[in-house]
Write a structure and sequence with these properties.
Triosephosphate_isomerase; binds glyceraldehyde-3-phosphate; Aldolase_TIM; 40% helix; 8 strands; 267 residues; eight-stranded parallel barrel
């Protein structure tokens, strides 16, 4: 029975400059592109740099299992949208992932559920794997967060065709209040909401539910089996920290305790 991969992704947001982005990526390519768990697919990695660095980052990870993607795409086919980037161009360049619906896009750029749904449909149509960011705005009980997050997932997939709904999908559960904070949400909160999302996505067996929001070394180990991976930010800016988290994932995968089996991904 195949073990579903533990998925680890990082977005640099707008923190890194061009040279720093390439330095991080070359370091990770050196450290991890030949890591056994990465090579054999037990640990799946993706990196989301700023747009100007996409081409060299794609080159850096060419012929490695590390996936690369955009942090955004525009909610329309290619056309007269000055300053924007199409899903078609991301796919043409060789991106495998695209981030959609991050809390910062919602808060700073007024992206709403309708925009997120359109972007998700376009991403899937282009064969990109959406890194669909969802999460409750305010700290509260897990049951309320589950309701809010389930609504966001349903809304995001509302325009996708049945066939597109069976395509790979990464659901990044990021409570807004844990992003950019000093520490992640509690283990109990993360576990409860991610389980609620797994249950909700039972008809979408290729969906992976990962956690983001001040995630760093040790969190994956403490969450063993409760999430399908992590969506990392600041606490993986140090390549050594990212490497440590990949090693944690590798160990968990070896113990068979971190990710669901492919055939029971909806359990
Ligand atoms: O894109 C990444 C997430 O928003 C988490 O960021 P953070 O770990 O810096 O809070």
């Amino acid at each position: 029975m195949a073990q579903a991969p533990i998925t680890l992704g990082i977005s640099f947001k707008m923190y890194f400059g061009y040279a720093q982005t390439l330095e991080w990526c070359h370091r990770i390519a050196t450290l991890l592109a030949h890591h056994p768990a990465v090579v054999d697919g037990r640990v799946s990695l993706f990196v989301l740099p700023s747009f100007p660095a996409l081409a060299p980052v794609l080159d850096c990870f060419a012929n490695t299992p590390v996936g690369v993607g955009g942090q955004n795409l525009y909610q329309a086919p290619p056309g007269a949208y000055t300053g924007e980037v199409s899903g078609a161009m991301l796919a043409e360049m060789g991106c495998r992932y695209v981030e959609i619906g991050h809390a910062e896009r919602r808060r700073l750029f007024a992206e709403d559920d309708a925009v997120v749904a359109t972007k998700t449909r376009i991403a899937l149509a282009q064969g990109l794997i959406p890194v669909l960011c969802i999460g409750e705005a305010d700290r509260g009980e897990p049951r309320n967060a589950i309701d809010e997050c389930r609504h966001q997932v349903d809304s995001a997939l509302a325009l996708a065709t049945p066939a597109q709904r069976s395509q790979p999908l990464v659901v990044a559960y990021e409570p807004h209040w844990a992003i950019g904070a000093s520490e992640p949400a509690s283990l109990a909160h993360i576990a409860a909401v991610c389980q609620g999302l797994r249950d909700h996505l039972s008809t979408h067996p290729s969906a992976r539910v990962i956690y983001g929001g001040s995630a760093g070394p040790d969190l994956l180990t403490r969450l063993a089996g409760k999430v399908d991976g992590l969506f990392l930010g600041r606490f993986a800016h140090d390549p050594a920290a990212f490497e440590a988290i990949v090693n944690e994932a590798s160990l968990l995968a070896s113990n068979g305790s971190a990710a669901r089996n492919e055939s029971s991904a909806s359990d």
